[in-house]
Model the fold of this input.
Amino acid sequence: MTKRKMSGVSKLIWLILIIGFAAMEFPGVLFFHDKVEPFIFGLPFIYGYIIILWAIMCIVLFYAYRVNWGEGNSEGGEKK
Done:
């Protein structure tokens, strides 16, 4: 069994995903639940905030898919 180190790209993807999911679940946005004053794209703040974060997370996951995030290298440097 060989040990694999994470590449810099893998670490960056993990960091962005963890921060993104934490931002989506941040309870501080609930302070805006009775307010409609701050608008994002014509939507109340809470809806615009979640839609923007959802779009960012989709882009990050698509990028991770394109760079074969999570796929290890086999011996000899060839990809599986």
User: Anything to note?
Assistant: Residues 40-69 form one domain.
